[in-house]
Amino acid sequence: MPEEVLFESESRRSRAEIAAYLRTVADSLESDNAITLQKGEQSVTMDPPARPTFEVKAEREGPDNGPGELSVEFELEWDEEGDGDDDGGDGGEGDGELAIE
Predict the structure, then answer these.
(1) How far apart (Å, rounded) are the C-alpha atoms in residues 15 and 101?
(2) Contact call for residues 59 and 73 (beta carbons, < 8 A)
(3) Alpha carbon of 26 to those of 31, 62, 63, 74: distances in Å?
(4) How many angstroms separate the CA atoms of 8 and 5, rounded?
(5) Cα–Cα distance between 97 and 91 in angstroms, integer?
(6) Burial profile 75-89: b = 16 or more Cβ within 10 angstroms, e = fewer
(7) Per-residue pLDDT of the chain (101 residues; tens, 9 = 90+)
């Protein structure tokens, strides 16, 4: 399935600034509100369903024998046509519940 990028932004931010962005997303999710992403003239609004798939990934990219680039990715995913409630399980690999500390 081809991928279409609807919005993209990448910039260096302080940890406090990143936390503020994530807090805004968390507040919108908790309040059942849509999430609007905006940068200049570019804008997209998305309304996640009650139970989207939540993916958390920690990655290291680079050579096996040298320093690389580390990343933590948080992703919400759902079908455009569906409500996101059809999974029934945690949808993850492995055992146990996700914990972020």
Answers:
(1) 15
(2) yes
(3) 9, 31, 35, 12
(4) 7
(5) 11
(6) eeebeeeeeeeeeee
(7) 789 999 999 999 999 999 999 999 999 999 999 999 999 999 999 999 999 999 999 999 998 888 999 999 999 999 998 665 555 455 556 678 888 87
Longest Cα–Cα distance in the chain: 46
Phi, psi dihedrals of residue 26, rounded to the nearest 5°: -60, -45
Contact present, 37 and 8 (Cβ < 8 Å): no
What's the half-sphere exposure (Cβ side, CA atoms, 13 Å) at 44? 9
Give residue 91's Cα distance to chain centre: 15
pTM of the model: 0.79
Residue 4 burial class via C-beta count within 10 angstroms: exposed 0-12, middle 13-18, buried 19 and up: exposed
pLDDT at 91: 53
